[in-house]
Amino acid sequence: MNEPQAFVPQKIQIGISSCLLGSEVRFDGGHKNSYYCATEIESFFEYTSICPEMAIGMGAPRKSIRQIRDGDVLLIQSADGTLDVTEKLSQFSQQKVTELGYLGGYVLCAKSPTCGMERVLEYKIGTNNSTKTGVGVFAKALMDAYPHLPVEEEGRLNDMVIRENFFTRVYAYDDWRKMLASGLTKHKLIQFHSRYKYLLMAHSPKWYRELGPLLADIQDLAATADSYFEGFMSALKVKATRKNHTSTLQHIQGYFKKHLSARQKEELAESIMKYRQGLFPLLVPITLINHYLNEFEVPYIADQVYLNPHPETLKLRYAY
């Protein structure tokens, strides 16, 4: 008799620029290997790596290309104008993104005329004058097609606040899609919002206040869900602040009043205050709250995604 196989949860699929995983696909035949992406977090995700320039047959090494602005027209050419891949890159990008609906996030290579998320050099035609106003051709097609998809540049992930924000969105985006895949109902939508209330409060009190009433009288479920998700992802894109985290923690603290001893109440209040003063990382009061949840039954708080928005082993809650 065969032994039953252990259940292995399906990993979230993340798109990534090929050069960030060490592939020698850059114009000079090199790469921009990211130790963080290729080694530290690789076990958490399933990668789909793409290099648009290699995909259209440019090879490596190759002539470097740049974005060139000619009035309302954006050209993708070599500096001397002898190589023009504008149409090829546009066609590839538009077609390829239609195949990427399964992705739960994307990590792009900065400054690239194809993959840069922002501040890509855009040259005025016939000159060497440039402005950092461009967006990579492929990156733009991706973000236009999936406006709520969590997208970030690899270099920006060195900022711990940006890193934590990105992966919070990745896991929330995945959670939403799993909820939809299970069959959308009013109950599931309201339950989803209930679980995310305090995460929303920490990121954007404004959106927290607006999203609840949206679900108060659901007439058209699909339209309401679309509006909710747009606001939900917009809220999570706002970086949580120490002030908002403190307010959120204090709201959660209130649910333990009937359970904690005087000493425990003081301990929790002190950890929140020291976090507010910058003496403790967010992980300290969060860990204490999770500890109390193991001792006392507070179902509403135990269900809050805020306490565990991503795997603890990703080590993301040292940002604040």
Attribute tags:
4-stranded mixed sheet, about 325 residues, 4-stranded parallel sheet, alpha/beta, single chain, elongated, disordered N terminus
Could you explain the architecture of this structure?
By secondary structure, the protein is α/β, with parallel strands linked by helices. The protein has 2 domains: 147 residues, no CATH class; 161 residues, no CATH class. 44% of the residues lie in helices and 12% in strands. Strands 2-1-5-8 form a 4-stranded parallel sheet. The protein is elongated and about 75 Å long. The N terminus is likely disordered.
Topology:
Blueprint: E1 12-17, H1 35-40, E2 45-50, H2 52-55, E3 66-70, E4 73-77, H3 86-97, E5 105-108, E6 120-124, E7 130-134, H4 137-145, E8 151-153, H5 160-181, H6 186-203, H7 205-214, H8 221-237, H9 242-253, H10 262-276, H11 283-295, H12 299-302
Parallel strand pairs: 1-2, 1-5, 3-6, 5-8
Antiparallel strand pairs: 3-4, 6-7
Oligomer: single chain
Stretches with pLDDT under 50, minimum 5 residues: 1-8
Proportion of residues in β-strands: 5-15%
Radius of gyration using CA atoms only: 23 Å
Number of helices: 12
Structural class estimated from helices and strands: alpha/beta
Number of strands: 8
Number of domains: 2
Could you describe the largest sheet, including whether it forms a barrel? Answer: 4 strands, parallel
How would you write the strand order of the largest sheet? 2-1-5-8
Average pLDDT over all residues: 94
**How much helix, percentage-wise, in residues?**
40-55%
N to C succession of SSEs? EHEHEEHEEEHEHHHHHHHH
Shape: elongated
Query: Kindly, what is the distance between the CA atoms of the first and last residues, rounded to a whole number of angstroms?
Result: 52 Å
